[in-house]
């Protein structure tokens, strides 16, 4: 039989059809989402003299290669956090802690009911960080305070660092409120005992929180100041639990027996911070590895 041009065209078409039948159809696949690299935030809570524990935590994180990208602090945490964010390493922080005398940051106003003014604390912080403003610090940093007029949480991340730390540390009943512009500010622990949310607002996607806050003891005080302090502790405890739940890691140094004014226990607090951070390292590494 003579093969004509039309036969050849028909054979070619069959070959194309058979080839198509033997080929696996391409199935569209969803793009694989790669998690963003960890941007670690360190949220340092309030606790007066217990705040020296933060230095121990930082020591262990640095010693084990955990690089902190952003820092936030409330009250005592804002003091340590500001110095750390300025570029000091853990050993420099410890040197400052050992050399610190309570008189360097305590200025009592006898005409103001014996309350601490806070100007000395502001000046101390600014001197230690070389009078840098927030934008000149080595790491992004924020200090959390409470607006006394409306109870709002205020996150300071611009301007005068020492003044922001002073506002964040103005414990009601002990410090005079810090006046900035037309507003009065008090301790950030009233609304944010451990500033986890502030760390995320600074861009952290993995937050390590350090909780040194006092817990309600179950014993009520008969003094006016004691009852006020107990009320603040209870309120802060409930708020703190909610915010801590939004952290990836919570480190809780055992500093419950250290009093708010026990500056002579600074070395004990540092060691407790080291121990608590060391215990948390396996979980930190595990959770960071899961992001990859």
Q: What would the keywords be for this entry?
A:
292 residues; 10 strands; two-stranded antiparallel ribbon; 9 helices
Structural class: alpha/beta
Compute the average pLDDT. Answer: 86
Helix content: 40-55%
Overall 3D shape: globular
Q: How many distinct beta strands?
A: 10
Largest sheet: 8 strands, mixed
> DSSP strand (E) fraction?
5-15%
Q: Determine the N-to-C terminus distance.
A: 67 Å
Sequence of secondary-structure elements: HEHEHHEEHEEHEEHEHEH
Q: Work out the helix count.
A: 9
Q: What Rg, in angstroms, do the CA atoms define? A: 28 Å
Low-confidence stretches: 9-23
What features would you describe in this structure?
The radius of gyration is 28 Å and the shape is globular. Helix 2 packs antiparallel against helix 4. 40% of the residues lie in helices and 14% in strands. By secondary structure, the protein is an alpha/beta fold. Strands 1, 2, 5, 6, 7, 8, 9 and 10 form an eight-stranded mixed β-sheet that branches. It has a two-stranded antiparallel sheet with strand order 3-4. A hairpin with a 5-residue loop joins strand 3 and strand 4.
List the helices and strands and how they pair.
Blueprint: H1 5-21, E1 40-44, H2 53-63, E2 70-74, H3 76-85, H4 90-99, E3 108-109, E4 115-116, H5 119-128, E5 141-147, E6 153-156, H6 161-168, E7 178-180, E8 183-187, H7 196-201, E9 206-210, H8 224-244, E10 249-251, H9 266-290
Motif (DGA/G): 187-189
Active site: 75 (nucleophile), 187 (proton acceptor)
Protein name: Patatin-like phospholipase family protein
């Amino acid at each position: 039989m003579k093969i004509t041009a039309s036969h050849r065209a028909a054979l070619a078409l069959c070959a194309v059809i058979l080839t198509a039948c033997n080929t696996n159809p391409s199935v569209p696949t969803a793009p694989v989402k790669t998690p963003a690299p960890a941007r670690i935030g360190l949220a340092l809570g309030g606790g007066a003299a217990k705040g020296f524990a933060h230095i121990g935590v930082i020591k262990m994180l640095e010693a084990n290669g955990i690089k902190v990208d952003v820092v936030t602090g409330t009250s005592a945490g804002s003091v340590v956090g500001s110095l750390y964010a300025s570029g000091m390493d853990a050993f420099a922080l410890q040197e400052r802690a050992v050399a610190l005398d309570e008189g360097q940051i305590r200025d009592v106003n006898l005409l103001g009911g014996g309350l601490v003014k806070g100007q000395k604390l502001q000046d101390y912080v600014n001197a230690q960080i070389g009078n840098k403003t927030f934008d000149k610090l080595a790491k992004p940093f924020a200090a959390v305070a409470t607006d006394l007029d409306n109870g709002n949480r205020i996150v300071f991340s611009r301007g005068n660092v020492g003044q922001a730390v002073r506002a964040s540390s103005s414990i009601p009943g002990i410090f005079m409120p810090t006046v900035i512009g037309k507003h009065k500010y008090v301790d950030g622990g009233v609304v944010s005992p451990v500033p986890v949310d502030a760390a995320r607002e600074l861009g952290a996607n993995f937050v390590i929180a350090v909780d040194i806050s006092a817990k309600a003891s179950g014993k009520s005080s008969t003094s006016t100041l004691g009852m006020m302090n107990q009320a603040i502790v209870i309120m802060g405890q409930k708020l703190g639990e909610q915010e801590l739940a939004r952290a990836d890691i919570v480190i809780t140094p055992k500093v419950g027996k250290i009093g708010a004014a026990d500056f002579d226990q600074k070395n004990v607090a540092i060691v407790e911070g080291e121990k608590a951070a060391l215990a948390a390292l396996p979980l930190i590494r595990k959770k960071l590895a899961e992001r990859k």
